[in-house]
Specification:
This protein has 14 helices and 9 strands. By secondary structure, it is of the alpha/beta class. The protein is globular. The protein starts with a strand and ends with a helix.
Length: 331
């Protein structure tokens, strides 16, 4: 087994630096297909504050070379950038990192639940595409099991925030009249829907949800009694709202300097890459803004983090035994 991981996260890079390496879904699949032709399995994890590749093959140096060449061609990423901002790990250290990610230990908000769903969804996607290997399947199945154990056997997630809920609470502290504001949520993915659910649970009634495809909207329009309008009308309707939450997976900003957003009082950009062009809007909250609010969360959960570390160590030992048994059987 040769396991390889390369990661750019909120720990190692700013949001702008993270955007430098962020591949869209078609590019991830292109690189995954290229690796597969060489017998290399791969899974990409892409969220608002991390971009990671976990790959498995017979030669980690080959995996590294292929990935670096692709990123240099697609994004002009230099070796210096990787040295400054990337976590690159092999075998046990790669698994340790992935287990910490799945358990919420590596998150900006320690113990948050969103990341486990994101790891599960990423694995399911690449498994369905046929991009994984038996070893990579085992690695991700164990990572997901670690994430579940961490949340069931410790209090790492008790009372934990998500990025979207942290953004909403930050907004509420800024504006005591938040309940009377009209809110537009753009994007019906995980981040957008969690924002919708949080606002709905708080009793907010002036909500509008917009998405690029109508089919994802339908279950929520009736359940949450929210308004909507065609995504194509966004540029002309955005200025009708007090607060705008952008949570769309796109390669380039949607809201640009050509848009009139003069009446929008607050914008939350939860997209990666960013959805709002730099300099647009009178008050924009980004994931970068929220980083400064998370230090107390780490101190509060320190004891639970130790318990999770013990779970991770035990699962790593189990995996080592599995690899040894598998290699013995194969031989």
């Amino acid at each position: 087994m040769s396991l390889y991981l390369v990661a750019i996260t909120h720990h190692t890079a700013t949001s702008q630096e993270l955007e430098t390496v962020y591949l869209d879904q078609s590019e991830r699949e292109e690189l995954g297909a290229r690796l597969l032709l060489m017998g290399i399995g791969s899974v990409f994890i892409a969220t608002c504050n991390r971009f990671e590749l976990v790959a498995e093959g017979s030669d980690v140096s080959l995996i590294h070379r292929v990935v670096m060449d692709y990123m240099a061609t697609r994004r002009s990423v230099t070796p210096l950038f990787w040295r400054r901002h990337a976590v690159i790990a092999h075998d046990r250290e790669a698994m340790l990192h992935l287990f910490k990610v799945a358990s919420g230990m590596d998150s900006m908000i320690i113990g948050e639940d969103e990341i486990l769903s994101q790891v599960k969804n990423a694995y399911a996607l690449y498994l369905e595409r046929g991009y994984t290997t038996p070893v990579l399947n085992k690695v991700f199945q164990l990572a997901i099991a670690v994430g579940k154990r961490a949340r069931h056997e410790t209090s790492i997630s008790k009372g934990s925030y998500s990025v979207s809920s942290l953004a909403i609470d930050y907004f509420r502290k800024l504006d005591l009249e938040w309940f009377n504001r009209s809110v537009l949520i753009v994007g019906a993915g995980m981040m957008g829907i969690r924002t919708l659910k949080k606002l709905h649970a708080l009793g907010h009634q002036r909500l509008t949800l917009v998405n690029r495809t109508d089919i994802k909207l339908r279950p929520f329009l009736e359940s949450f009694k929210v308004n909507t309008f065609p995504f194509e009308a966004l540029s002309t309707r955005i200025n009708d709202y007090d607060v705008v939450v952008m949570a769309v997976a796109v390669a380039k900003p949607i809201v640009t300097a050509s848009w009139n957003v003069a009446q929008v009082q607050l914008m939350l950009d939860l997209g990666m890459p960013r959805n709002i062009e730099v300099g647009v809007g009178q008050h924009v909250i980004t994931v970068e803004t929220l980083k400064s609010l998370t230090d107390a969360n780490v101190a509060k959960r320190r004891d639970e983090m130790q318990k999770v570390s013990e779970i991770i160590d035990a699962e790593l030992d189990r995996f080592t035994e599995w690899v040894g048994y598998r290699e013995t059987v194969v031989v």
